[in-house]
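Example record

Each entry pairs one chain with its bound ligand, nicotinamide-adenine-dinucleotide.
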Amino acid sequence: MEKLLSGKTALITGGAGEMATVVAKTLAAEGSGIILVDIDAAKLETAAQDIRSSYGVTVAAYTYNLCDFSAHDAFIDRLEKENGPISILVNIAGITNTVTYRDITEADWDKMMNINLKAPFFFTRELFFRMVERKDGRIINFGSISGERGAKYAGPHYSLSKAGLICFSKVLAKLAGESGVTVNTVSPGIIASRMTDSLGSQVFDYDVPMNRMGTPQEVANAVLYLVSPLADYVTGQNLSVNGGQSMR
Ligand SMILES: NC(=O)c1ccc[n+]([C@@H]2O[C@H](COP(=O)([O-])OP(=O)(O)OC[C@H]3O[C@@H](n4cnc5c(N)ncnc54)[C@H](O)[C@@H]3O)[C@@H](O)[C@H]2O)c1
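Structure tokens for the complex follow.
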């Protein structure tokens, strides 16, 4: 049977990270070639080896700082020259931080916004217009439950950066118009990962109706749906993967 993503190439930012690695494996299992981009060279090589050895797809890995804003357009050009056209972009790289509204400094704000919002904003641009020109492309931005309803357990600037990303997907979805390129957000809730280790394993059933944390695989499944032909007519949406935490 034909795989869902045969012939596609997916670029995944923050590709050495916990959720990104699972997303990469999930797309690779459906036949997509993989390009991982991350600032952490050691983790990146481990992740690339792991995917390469388990799936029969090409896996390229690039150590790159997504805050190197003026280098993005040339970098995208290099990636496509070396790997062919990129049909899927998943912007996963991000940081969190628990500084309070009272204590936050301008430097805290700038670091968070640079990595979580400014980086995907400028990194996506060159590839977005190439995708529109080719009438072929899928873009996913990683939001968060914090960006949907604000969070107390993360710094206020984290929530704002993720709210910005949810809106960024809508803006691009409108700009993509009738090209067939779709742009969506996947917003994880509380996912069992290093980012949530400090919370312990407990969630509260009044807050998370399903009364458990999610898994990286459950988030990756949502990404797979949105980048696949099953979601051809889905764009500008925010898909919440959070056990019902944000239902209204
Ligand atoms: N873990 C959760 O429960 C949770 C919940 C909601 C949203 N999210 C979001 O999901 C995404 C992935 O989360 P995770 O827990 O897998 O995080 P993670 O820390 O494991 O992965 C993030 C990756 O981004 C990379 N990165 C950071 N700054 C970079 C830069 N300047 N240039 C290139 N790479 C850079 C890091 O090296 C890391 O590999 C993040 O955007 C996060 O905000 C996570």
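Residues 14, 16-20, 38-40, 43, 65-67, 92-96, 115, 142, 144, 188, 190-191, 193-196 surround nicotinamide-adenine-dinucleotide (CB under 6 Å).
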